[in-house]
Design a protein that fits this description.
This protein is 37% helix and 19% strand. It has nine helices and 14 strands. The two termini are 38 Å apart.
Length: 339
């Protein structure tokens, strides 16, 4: 999620007469700082972004660098990119390192450089719908201290600048209720102040709507649903077409993830909320990943998953997102709340 914001290298990376690479970043390559070239590249609402060029073993290579004050944000993005890249190698650039900068109190994230194209490629390894389907049909690994796959993620991730508690839970209904809707309710109160009416609506959805739509034994039938990796913030601004060094073709790729292991349809909420994913895309995707049973509740689940993002946008930006969230909650409550 990238609202209008700043771009360019952080103050820590700017010097009179040019730019220099922080030693912590060059050590991750590894090369000497003076053997690297760094220049402003792209833009981000929450971080500063640069292109790093270095000669390694006689080969000139390019990397993408983010710097900023939030180390936990970069850790979450690093682990999200790693998990996505391991599952579907051409779905995103690989993340190479993250950590504390040496010459400032800031932090960094270093990834492969994506050479952005302005056209949809004609010959790719897989279409974006196929990549997403592969991602959403690959069972999650069991966390280290559990014997079965769980819903959650090993670290906190950030949707925009909102931290997301990814504490593992066995139940998707509990995870979505407590870690997502409960978490964003607390974030709204922290950023926007007490809003009793909004809190009442969120509590109603948690208490009465989620148990109807997402409860164990109902969603997915008796067999239930399996946790799968999701990007977590897949609006149209977080997809691109480009090529990473070593790839044989241009690829449709995903950027800026805030991943967790979730219900596969959770991914689709923000995709439908902001549009720009065509009907043909969803037709291709659902041929590979059928709608979860009960299929007749699919649209209501999409509204429920969109709700989290309306609430998060209200926490981040204020404005009419509150009205949109309340409208969704009113509709769902009329259908699934106490009669």
């Amino acid at each position: 999620m990238t609202p209008p914001g700043q771009d360019g290298p952080s103050k820590a990376n700017r010097k009179a007469g040019g730019t220099t690479l922080d030693p912590a970043v060059s050590a991750a390559l590894p090369v000497l700082p003076e053997a690297c070239k760094i220049q402003r590249h792209g833009q981000s609402g929450f971080t500063s972004t640069s292109k790093v060029t270095a000669t390694i073993n006689g080969e000139t290579r390019a990397f993408f660098l983010k710097t900023g004050p939030m180390g936990d944000m970069f850790k979450g993005e690093h682990m999200s990119l790693q998990a996505l890249h391991i599952t579907v190698p051409t779905i995103c650039p690989a993340s190479l390192a993250h950590g504390q900068l040496s010459n400032s109190t800031g932090h960094f994230l270093l990834t492969e450089f994506l050479d952005i194209r302005n056209r949809i490629p004609g010959n790719t390894s897989l279409s974006l719908a196929q990549k997403l389907a592969k991602l959403h049909t690959t069972p999650a690994p069991a966390p280290g201290d559990h014997s079965t796959p769980m819903f959650g993620f090993p670290v906190t991730t950030f949707c925009g600048s909102t931290p997301q508690d990814n504490t593992f839970r066995a139940s998707w209904a509990e995870f979505f209720a407590e870690n997502r809707l409960g978490g964003i309710a607390r974030a709204i109160e922290k950023k926007r102040g007490t809003d009793s009416q909004l809190k009442i609506w969120i509590d109603k959805v948690i208490a009465e709507v989620i148990p109807k739509l997402l409860r164990d034994g109902h969603l997915g039938g008796e067999s239930g649903i399996m946790p799968v990796l999701v990007h977590g913030d897949l609006w149209s601004g977080n997809k691109a077409v480009g090529r990473v060094g070593g790839w044989n073709s241009d690829e449709e790729v995903l950027l800026d993830p805030s991943s967790c292991y979730a219900h596969s349809e959770y991914e689709l909420g923000i995709m439908k909320m902001f549009g720009r994913f065509s009907a043909a895309f969803f037709e291709e995707y659902h041929r590979l990943v059928p709608k979860t049973e009960p299929a007749n509740e699919y649209r209501d689940r999409m509204d429920l998953y969109e709700l989290y993002h309306y609430l998060n946008h209200y926490a981040l930006f204020g404005g009419s997102y509150r009205d949109s969230a309340v409208a969704v909650m009113e509709r769902l409550y009329r259908k699934y709340g106490k009669k």
